[in-house]
Amino acid sequence: MTRRVDRQAQEAIILSEPRPSTPGKLTVPFHRPSIGEEEISEVVDTLRSGWLTTGPKVARFERDFAASVGARHAIALNSATAALHLALEAVGVKPGDDVIIPTYTFTASGEVVTYLGARPVLADCRADTLNIDRHTVEPCLTTRTKAILPVHVAGQVCDMGPLLELARAHGLAVVEDAAHAFPASYKGQSVGTIGDATAFSFYATKTITTGEGGMVTTEREEYAARMKIMSLHGLSGDAWNRYSARGHWYYEVIDFGFKYNMTDVAAALGLRQLERAAAFHRRRQQIARRYSDAFAELDTCSIPHDAGLGAHAWHLYILQVNPTVLRVGRDEIVERLRENGIGTSVHFIPLHLQPVYRRTYGYAAGQFPNAEAAFARAISLPIFPSMTDGEVDYVIDAVRAILREARR
Ligand SMILES: Cc1ncc(COP(=O)(O)O)c(C=O)c1O
Questions:
Q1: Is the pTM of this model over 0.85?
Q2: In a 10 Å sphere around its CB, with 0-12 CB exposed, 13-18 middle and 19+ buried, how is residue 44 labelled?
Q3: CB of 108 shorter than 6 A to ligand 1
Q4: Of 241, 246, 363, 408, which has the highest C-beta tally within 10 A?
């Protein structure tokens, strides 16, 4: 059975947990975090250091993350949601503005627009990549459009060139939701250096994790300065440092800000995860390749479309079942996988189908056919670095058997 889930699986929305394993059967969860002794020692070191909140480890994590994506500025925060909010605020989104976002995303991409009194205007996704592009965004432009917020769904980058051109032609800011897209690239350029600002997530299931956490990157000094100040109550300068020996008690409150800073405890985790990010990425790529090789020739499903625009982070592997040749729907396939001990998830329930977006903006079913078709067919399979070859084989065999059995 699919069911609504708690905060621990917030990004999944619908999460199917595997049944407890039966003898002789594997259980493969949707996600298993890769936390090793390195992370544990680094966190213990922080706990022993006497400096728990934003401090030297956050500063190091920001430096290392900026270097790893090649960004000029990186600011560590307590979530990607915070990163998106600060980025939109920094580029000047104000009450009455419109921000174009995909309907095929998590609500965080839209709620941040409303924090600023602006309106999220939904765009359909492409049928193949599930990402927005210039053609799906263009009809959504209004005289009030201030920014475009592309989401790199599953970790595959949107076609940013034409989107940036469109933004430039209309004087719009581009804030990227790269919650799924670390590390990823577009035509050789790292995600994190492309738009005006880019938000990354270090939520528990993401490609690297700090438990809860996020990072915002930008090339622009003035955006970085604004986001830094607004991330900590709108306090001036190095206020986070005010309790250290080098700090000073005096600060000024420049604006009404937010409480979005990352702790050193979280940054300790992040520092060690970042060192392992390339290895994690290689394993995700291997698993995705094995899934795609195993499912490519089946007519009962479609594998993720690779647009060939750059390196895919493979945060998610979204398989789409084919209703025209199956006797049962996606929900039934999810249930059968669960009976076989395999945890899956569904990304995404399009925002225009969610009560608050319908109630507030009048969106209705039928408005975004690509997103609705993708939602009806999507199953996110387990993909995480500590998955063993045996677990990958087990998932492949189960998916193939269940789809074969469900054929008309
Ligand atoms: C596309 C997308 N954007 C933003 C977020 C929010 O990330 P966080 O939980 O770090 O705020 C998520 C969370 O899963 C997401 O999937």
A1: yes
A2: exposed
A3: yes
A4: 363
